[in-house]
Amino acid sequence: MRLVETRDQILDAAWNLFAERGFEDVSVRDVTNTAGVNLASVSYHFGGKEGLIQETVKHCMNPINEYRIKLLNELVTMHGSVDEVPLVELVTAFMRPVVMPDECGVRSGLMLRMLARYLIESDYTIPPASRSLYTEMIQAYAKAFMVKFPGVDPLTLVKHMVFAAGSVMLYHGLGKVALQLSSGSQEDIGEIDREEMLQDVVEYTLCGFGGRRHNVD
Amino acid sequence: MRLVETRDQILDAAWNLFAERGFEDVSVRDVTNTAGVNLASVSYHFGGKEGLIQETVKHCMNPINEYRIKLLNELVTMHGSVDEVPLVELVTAFMRPVVMPDECGVRSGLMLRMLARYLIESDYTIPPASRSLYTEMIQAYAKAFMVKFPGVDPLTLVKHMVFAAGSVMLYHGLGKVALQLSSGSQEDIGEIDREEMLQDVVEYTLCGFGGRRHNVD
DNA sequence: GTCAATATTATACGACCGTATTAAAATGCG
DNA sequence: CGCATTTTAATACGGTCGTATAATATTGAC
After folding, report:
1. Strand C–CB B45 distance below 7 A
2. Is the pLDDT of residue B143 over 80?
3. A2-CA/D26-C1' distance, Å
4. How many domains does chain A fold into?
């Protein structure tokens, strides 16, 4: 079956190029040349460039949110009920798919970058093909956090989820720069350890969610 | 003096257009038409599109970091020494310029969006014209946080600063969406109250920096 | 093997892009 | 005023873009 191959080759090339250089900066010709297929294939399979973008983002975003839901469900069944799931595991389930996208089939650390790109360039609009899943995910976690923090305003919890999602967004890119600058050294700091990063951001998020101020000063 | 007017008109138009639609998506013609000046003015005053972008970003980024440094200095002189500045005020000084850009002459809430755009599209590279100021700012705050947390690994503190900066980045855009989704309602939630947002994100950041876990479960 | 459906290719079209060139106009100074 | 400098304007150029069209090739069912 040739049809599947071509379509997937295009998506594969689009994924890498879009993530690396952005949607506007990559031409349909760039994609088809990289994929080794004909220019017109994009129109045929995706209806045009915009369709290709939507499909590419969907193939990146949906597995993340599916993985989040899966992890949450696993936690609930494992501990019997939502309110028995430790907060740290809840937060980890929420963050892990973003830091470790490979675990849900989303390759490469370019994922966050492409997602950020799309969100910003599309006026923070979740692509239609991913919206219902996103809603489901947000609501599931919101409900879980509401169980853990019965006294806290639900809106505040959602805000914290957004803060948490944002925290990790700059880490891949700016994090390296900032770390480099602050340490004063010019040499590249190299790849960031993902497990350590996950632990860091979970700890940080955990404190933010906890909502209690540390007793310094 | 006509020269200043034209240059400023271009920067003004570029600011709005770039923030709203992105750098790639806005043509030099869009800018000059909006500004009501001739197409060639951009080449003349900025050397080309790239020069215009750099200048626009600089005019948005530098005041933010200058304001951050200014607030920090004020706090130090006010309280006598760094270690006497309450942590909450330190975090507020770091966050406030980003949430309230108008206070340092950076108009409109499009600032964060344009900055995010630029950082992502430029591979998280701070523009050369803003780099030294950025470095100065990061190092000043890093030093201050090190005073407040003498036992904490400096690298961890920088990470927390990056987390904090990221937290607020999605709030303008995705925050609205998420809040809307989670509440289940379809209607637009309207403009976000900035003072409330600052308070929220400061509180959240404060907890993250505190590094102590809340005693839920 | 035939044939309709599906998939791929080659190619052309019109539109818009960023920049350079050249001329016109405005400005500042003696 | 007169003139050199700076600024604005009109326009042309080469290139690339996304898309549509038409022809060719491949597939799968009978």
Report:
1. no
2. yes
3. 8
4. 2
